Amino acid sequence: MSEYNIREMIDKKKGKSGNAAIEKAVPIILLIITLVSVLTTIGILVTLLTETVMFFTRVSPIEFLTSTEWSAFSSDPQWGIFALIMGTLKITAIAIVFAVPVGLGAAIYLSEYASDRIRRLVKPVLEILAGIPTVVYGFFALTFVTPLIRGIWPEVNLFNAISPGLVVGVMIIPMIASLSEDAMSAVPNSMREGALGLGSTRLEMVLKVVLPAAVSGIMASIVLAVSRAIGETMIVSIAAGSTPNGSLNLMESLQTMTGFIVQVASGDATYGTDTYFSLYAVGMTLFVFTLLMNIIAQWFSRKFREEY
Amino acid sequence: MTLAKVKEETDMNTVYDTAVDSRTQEMNSIKQTSNAIFQAKDFNLWYGNNHALQDINLDFNENEISAIIGPSGCGKSTFIKSLNRMVELVPIVRTEGDIVYRDQSIFDKSSTVENLRTKVGMVFQKPNPFPKSIYDNVAYGARVHGIRNKKVLDQVVEKSLKGAAIWEEVKDRLNDNAYGLSGGQQQRICIARALAIEPDVILMDEPTSALDPISTTKVEDLMHELKKDYSIIIVTHNMQQAARISDRTAFFYQGYVVEYDKTNVIFDKPKDQRTEDYVSGRFG
Predict the structure, then answer these.
(1) Which CATH number, 1.10.10.10, 3.40.50.300, 2.60.40.1220, 1.10.3720.10, labels domain A70-304?
(2) Residues in domain ABC transporter (chain B) (predicted)?
(3) Residue B75 is inside which H or E element, if any?
(4) pLDDT score recorded for residue B129
């Protein structure tokens, strides 16, 4: 039997040139890859900014911010972003009011009450729900939920805020449930034992120890969900209509910021017109909204963080 | 470990296993004391098919420190967690026999498990304060049980922290997160948290195993103080600790109680060969 000399083999391998070159090249290649994503983001931002400035040389920013009417395609166009923001807010509010209690309830059940078997069964189903294409949710809203609502309240318009709002809610439930469940499962069991050992009931343990300990993760999941609701496009394009208005009425047709962008981008405006440039102003507003959400989220999780 | 040692241990195990039946009878004949707070009566416990506790018969006395010692896996932690029914958090647990706390079975349907746990407090192996302020940690139990009055809570917190001998160290930082404290301080906060709801018995599951020697001394001194007002049952891996602090000691081995007697008897004149081997450090 021949003996292998390990030491010699290692020395031979170590002596090979080329290893050093690879070691030097790797960080440079990784830097380039990183730069691609950073530069793309910067590029998008710069385009967004310059085109937005272009829009404001044609339309006064004061009108943009103070007018309450948006009619980009009429012979006397109005540019009050408020009407589109109102549309987005109505959809987002309905979605959140519906999805937060349901998503959190599901998370609490899965993390604190469900047996392993049930958890293993339900979690994948939730993840499947998260994988349904939004266009499917869109026609589900228009062809199933809307008729259902109109069956109960016949005065509701075919295009309205309630149906797409609820369906956007359904879309974000898995995100809230799944991420909140992760946050709650990450709370160490020793804390649950501590609470139960002091004679707390299971519910008291959940409400007073587990939820507070997981609050930063739960807030993060809700904020992510809000961002998705604000940015949701397909469902609202299909089921909410295309009539921008600043009213609080949930029964009539409306248009969101994203809905307007789709309408323009899918060919209703020619290059170089006011309407074309308004696309960027609306996009910019949308961007500011999601940025604000992120800042609020960070502030929230820092303020309420319970470190362990 | 040398081969000879391994063999010696294997031999010892065989001897112990065959001696088990006669031992059970010995245990049953131990004299019942009148001021027992906890009595285990033919208590058996299974994790699935694993018979973890077998025919346990033990009486624990009021205002004493009772220690449970034994090698890893002997069932001592399982047993102490049975006393406040925390062991039932493991879904596959099944029990037989009875545990009586102050003349009432802990499994009696007329009383809730929450009720039992407010009277039988517990301090865990690893300090497990909640990620809240020191004040909120100690006030937790009182708040859960409906006490809202700020004055009352202030008093409860101060009294409990003093009771746990940590008031002087934390009185100026009650609103700081308990996780900013050292391990030993955290464990005393957990003791204060248990004291705050004025329990009758305190169960301690290896309370000093995660602590340094100085913190350990502090917690041990504290236990001596607490003995006046509380009955303490402590599981410990550390035989010197059991000898230092306890009045009575039970030696668990492979799910059985091998011997239970006054601590000095267990350590100086044990009746059972296995107890002597364990307390003299020959195995475990």
Answers:
(1) 1.10.3720.10
(2) 38-279
(3) none
(4) 94
